[in-house]
Amino acid sequence: xxxxxxxxxxxxxxxxxxxxxxxxxxxxxxxxxxxxxxxxxxxxxxxxxxxxxxxxxxxxxxxxxxxxxxxxxxxxxxxxxxxxxxxxxxxxxxxxxxxxxxxxxxxxxxxxxxxxxxxxxxxxxxxxxxxxxxxxxxxxxxxxxxxxxxxxxxxxxxxxxxxxxxxxx
Length: 169
What we know:
Low-confidence stretches: 1-20, 98-118
Shape: globular
Structural class: alpha/beta
Number of helices: 4
Mean pLDDT: 77
């Protein structure tokens, strides 16, 4: 009996996770003005922000997504303060550690705590869309190597969700 309850709880958790991954496509189709940026684990950073938490590969992936969005024409890219929706990416990583001696020449700026910090993350890449006014998650997709290529698979997943919303009455 306890096994059945555990299975039901696991199934409910998977269903919730699937809903979160799938999101609500109609909420992706309504915004016109969007801002691009990075999910650094502690919040959204606009694409122009300089931070040691953003990997060079993430900057390159976001550049490719910018080009794809501009070519697509569905959204107008603006600064975060003017956006209706925020699109954030995160390159998969197993973990990262920052550290050093505060103020030492050549030391990167510390982002967590006085002597550094650690950050764990999924090994899958992610693309997320947030309502800019509330900060609520609208849609999220994750995939291994999802930010790779000229038209990243996660961007194509976003496009497909918007097309799905547009085809609904």
